[in-house]
Amino acid sequence: MSTIQTGSYRRQRDHFEPQDIDPQEQRKLRGLLEQIDYSTFVANREVIGHMLPNLDAAAFQRLAVLTATARGKWVAEGLRQSESGAPSTVDQIARLTATRTAYEELAEVYEGLRRMVERGYTALR
Fold first, then answer.
1. Where are the domains of the chain?
2. Rounded-to-integer distance, Cα 9 and Cα 111, Å
3. Is the pTM of this model over 0.85?
């Protein structure tokens, strides 16, 4: 099974890939899979398009600033903890984990939103 590397985690591909099928059956199966993919595209376009109708470049910029701020807080927290030279406490590690998680989640939102525009699920105004 192949994997796809995203910004912070690996996602397994689980699409069935037939090996030993008669060529005519393989074409038929590919046609059905294309119909499924198209249905998924239409569903994504309809649902996401209604959920994000006012998407514009300013929304991307706000999200980018929020993500950059979260990244900066994460790194600043790590640097702050290193200043004493002592090992981090459980509470300090929890704060560091929270700031990293916030950054990673926002980075995934940005990548997800970009993919939605790229794939035509929603349009920029």
1. 18-51, 54-125
2. 13
3. no
